[in-house]
Design a protein that fits this description.
single chain; mainly alpha
């Protein structure tokens, strides 16, 4: 394709934070409203009468300019960011939207995803915001991606680790699996580079290096990262339209939105292309519209589309309110995330050294199987024998009041003594000699650096003859160890 450079916004206000917020939020809302009337219609059906302008009625029989849950929850997040960062406030706004019609275009909630509804129901019953979302792999709809963009203005100047942690917290209110979090993080990083004035093709290339390098420092399985291979390894803008999918799966929504952005040269063309992909038209266009609004600027969004939006003035006031707050306070008032030392990894690594101490005490048949949780966000470690098993990652962290912020003040000997007292039945099955494994395990520990955690793969991950580590290294295992991976 012809790679044109960005058509930059030459508006006199284009460097103003409020203007950028308007570009993003109106970008989301206009794209959303364009897609609402044809939501759930197939690509084939829409191709017979393509969307070329803002229309009304259709799927929900609502007037032109009506936006859906994508914009509602985007505005709820933006509103929450006009005060001290607090995921509980964000969650409260979501509850008020669903149950009190807060930030709805016409006083009624008419569209909501299953996962989002389940999460908000949990919030309403008192569940903590960061734990309200589903963490299962089959709960990776696009419900957090569609609303995440306002977070950009809050965290764009923070270190990468902190940006990711804030993204994780906000995504997990409705969608806590690492796949959804990764999609949100990719999207926000793309938007962040747009704010810095980079060309979209330059950004695409940068992220193919930056994202994998960063994700490989986390305890995220290579299979999860590989799911995004069309963005991280290939040129998705060269993919034919029939291989771009526009359903509600978060990976497909992210791919489709980047494809629409990369294969067009204006806000109008990008969002119309997204809508005409069919199926989840409002969300695909909203996600595309957020980036296109930032890239081309508020002035490139057709004025008649903006003027037709429901609650146009309220949206504009929200943009000014957020811009004013962030300008007055700066964007660095979020809770700081520890970046010098990762105490979670330091503490979890101690479990590995407890196993070595147990080997020294005659429990040489004890095997160690490290892995990541189903959500992909936490590290786990199974102590296993042929007859029994014990999961000890929760046991090790129970010594902490706050798992992330401080280091366990017990020595390896003290932790081992405690484990030996509390797990006598299990340890009886571990007695005996296995010098080969004991020596291999000792050498494995000697290879690990501070904060480095290994993980094996089991179940739907194919067992291998090596362990990966959080620093993207491979450690060869002994033959026939894969039979223990079922305890991942």
């Amino acid at each position: 394709m012809n790679r044109q450079t960005n058509k930059r916004d030459n508006s006199g206000d284009s460097n103003d934070l409020t203007y950028k917020i308007k570009s993003a939020l109106f970008g989301v809302a206009v794209g959303d409203a364009l897609g609402v009337p044809v939501e759930f219609k197939s690509r084939k059906t829409i191709s017979e009468n393509p969307v070329t302008d803002m229309i009304g009625y259709g799927t929900y029989n609502l007037p032109a300019g009506t936006w859906s849950d994508d914009s509602s929850l985007t505005f709820c997040l933006a509103e929450a960011l006009t005060q001290q960062f607090d995921t509980e406030v964000i969650g409260k706004n979501f509850v008020e939207w669903l149950y009190q019609n807060h930030w709805t275009p016409g006083g009624t909630v008419f569209d909501i995803g299953i996962g989002t509804r389940q999460a908000i129901d949990r919030l309403a019953k008192g569940k903590r915001a960061e734990n309200a979302g589903n963490f299962e792999a089959n709960s990776n709809g696009n419900g957090s991606l569609m609303r995440i963009l306002p977070l950009l203005f809050y965290c764009s100047d923070k270190p990468t680790t902190e940006r990711f942690e804030l993204t994780r917290q906000v995504s997990s209110i409705t969608h806590g699996h690492i796949r959804s979090i990764t999609a949100c993080f990719y999207y926000l990083e793309f938007a962040r580079h747009i704010l810095q004035g980079k060309d979209k093709f330059e950004i695409y290339k940068i992220l193919q290096t930056e994202l994998p390098d960063f994700l490989n420092t986390l305890s995220i399985s290579r299979d999860e990262i590989q799911i995004y291979h069309r963005l991280l390894e290939n040129e998705i803008f060269g993919v034919n339209e029939e291989r771009i999918y526009s359903d509600g799966y978060v990976v497909h929504t992210l791919e489709a939105s980047i494809w629409c952005l990369m294969t067009t040269d204006s806000y109008k063309d990008a969002v119309l292309k997204a809508v005409n992909l069919g199926d989840d038209t409002d969300t695909t266009a909203a996600v595309t519209g957020g980036l296109a609004g930032l890239l081309y600027g508020f002035s490139d969004i057709p004025g008649r589309w903006i003027n037709s939006l429901a609650k146009y003035r309220e949206i504009e006031n929200l943009c000014h309110k957020l811009g004013r707050y962030l300008n007055e306070t700066g964007t660095n008032n979020a809770p700081r995330v520890e970046t010098e030392k990762n105490y979670y990894r330091i503490n979890m690594q101690k479990a590995l050294f407890v196993a070595r101490e147990l080997h020294k005490r005659g429990y040489e048949k004890l095997r160690v199987v490290p892995c990541v949780s189903p959500s992909g966000m936490s590290w786990r470690c199974s102590f296993v024998t042929e007859k029994d098993k014990a999961i000890i990652s929760n046991w090790i962290s129970s010594f902490l009041e706050e798992e992330i912020n401080t280091e366990i003040n017990y020595s390896i000997t003290e932790l081992t003594n405690c484990f030996e007292r509390e797990h006598t039945t299990f340890l009886e099955t571990c007695k005996g000699t296995d010098k080969k494994y004991k020596e291999w395990y000792k050498q494995m520990l000697n290879q690990l650096e501070e904060e480095e955690l290994p993980y094996a793969f089991g179940e739907y991950f194919s067992p291998t003859d090596y362990w990966d580590t959080s620093k993207n290294r491979k450690i060869a295992t002994l033959p026939n160890e894969a039979r223990f991976y079922k305890y991942c």
